[in-house]
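User: Hi! I'm working on a homework problem where we have to compare a predicted structure to a textbook description. Could you give me the structure for the chain below?
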Amino acid sequence: MKKLELNDPETKSADVVSDNLSALQSLFPDVFREGKIDFDVLKQLLGDAVDDRDEKYGLNWHGKRKARQIALTPSVGTLLPRPEESVDWNATQNLMIEGDNLEALKLLQKSYAGKVKLIYIDPPYNTGKDFVYPDDFRDSIKNYLELTGQVDSGGKKATSNTETSGRFHTDWLNMILPRLKAAKTLLRRDGVILISIDNQEISNLRLLCDEIFGAENFVSCLVWEKGRKNDAKLVSNGHEYVLLYASSLGYLQELKIKWREEKPGAREIWEKYLELRVVHGNDDRAIELDLQSWFSSLPKAHPSKKWSRYKRVDKNGPWRDRDISWPGGGGPRYDVLHPDTKLPCKVPERGWIYSNATEMQRQIKLGLVEFRSDHLEPPFRKAHIRPIPEEGDEPEFDIEDTAEDADNESEEEFANQVRGSYFYKQSQVSVKSLRQLMGAKVFNNPKDFEEIARLIEYTTQNDPDAVVLDFFAGSGTTGQAVWSLNVRDGGNRTFILVQLPEPLDPSKKDQKAPANYCDKLEKPRTIAELTKERLRRAGQKFKDDTSFEGDLGFRVFKLAQSNIRAWEPVPSDLEGTLLANAEHIVPGRTEQDILYELLLKLGLNLCVPIATQQIAGKSVHAIGGGVLMVCLADGLTKDVVESLSSGIIAWWKGLAPAVETRVVFNDSGFADDVAKTNMAAILNQNGILDVRSL
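Assistant: Happy to help. Predicted structure tokens:
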């Protein structure tokens, strides 16, 4: 029975370097010499693709190499479960992790690699103020605990990043690079990442993302206008940016992914039409007149006002006229007879939109072509506010692929459209909304959850089960945005939020209100406590205001040192060190703490079901339907081992997991080596081959 030590691969987060070496060795086995890479051979195999120039294009700064290495260093920390701080612990699939996001991202790699559909982050904007992120990675977990005030820091301070420091951009880049590299491994192949940023670092971040995600995977740089600042001296910079990269843009294109969103106001037009259809029955003309009167009565700012061209009505609903000519010119020319005059209609100067007369007749039969009073002018197409179900094959020519004029808009449900790269939402809207939810102003610049929901919905289309990650969670906007989408469409999207428990100092003007708010809650003065409280209130509000019965809970986990004790000898007291390390598990840690570390380190989902049975008077846990079975009880004597092993085998056979099962025991729980050897032998003989101890 192998004992799991702190430095074993099974007790660490994913070893990215080892994985990279394995991948390289499978491609180029001849470049390895005694376990090392012969770069001269590798360069020969790669040929002209190798850039040996001293001067290269790219973003470079002091500390970049170290920042890369930090991203590749496995974590030996763990995430401690906190059911008492959670909501619906037993049912929820959402995670709220309190801790340094770099360590959390590393710990999540085994369980969530390639499973996240969307990452949205709103990192510190490098405004010249302090940002509390560890910058000493010799012992990252210890350093994190010091910076967040959880252990005696010995005077250690938060990272100061003033513009006069000479390392203004360098410090910020050293902070963000390893986090982006660690996050990339979590993205699905069809996933995307959205990063909010302002003018200060947009240019550097764009170059850095080109390097990490690939310039070929850049999708867009969105501009979020939040309002004019009249106190600006020269120009009001009232906007921010949202960088959008795909994990693999080529793969999205292979899947023929087209992102569209509903035109604001289109749904209201359809609902008004249905109302008028009830009133007027089949009298399309009466419906048209009332619909046009409704458009005229709308205030100028109403979103439906923009689509008042949808004022005609037929059996398929409101429609507007649309050009019927070939985009760009050179289209086909054939006769189309007018239904009344029986003479050929005038052919558009650019030719017909439909490639042949057969397709034209099919469109006419479907009622999607409207003729004028005579044949002297070409007819036009109908563009309905909702799509028309067509029978048979799709049209031979897809106008949406090649249209050149602005009049050629999508005919998807509710006149959907591709969104532009610019959008406006006044910043005070989100400030007021969050103040109402929390009962006080505790965040100065929260993101608008409705706009974040819109971004999530747009980039995760047709995926109601998407996993959304935000590792700079802040006020928890992303969590509320995910819930709002699920409430609206009945989806099952889940979120993973990570927030540093950044201390709040009531002596600082901008931190006094949130610190006092934490005091009223009788919670520690940290940003993470505010994040959790916002989630609790948002979830309860959705329960109170809607009939939604889906997941509005979240599991809280906190970053900590591993449950497995590290060997830390004291040269002056080796005997005392041996006695202190006789117990392999950190004192004070619970059975549940150890269970969830095993889940993390063995690559199981943190929300996987855990069943528990009493066998031979000992608690035995079956995780993930028997993929992992754990017994951490003490008092495993020879007699207990016989009955306990029989019970474990019977339960395992009943579960019948599809993959090999691992069974883990507490090493110090065995009375002696004989009991431990017998347990391993009995389980092995009955088909359970992977038996370990902690």
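For your comparison, note the following. Confidence is low (pLDDT under 50) at residues 155-160, 391-412, 577-581. The CA atoms of residues 71 and 178 lie 4 Å apart. Good luck with the assignment!
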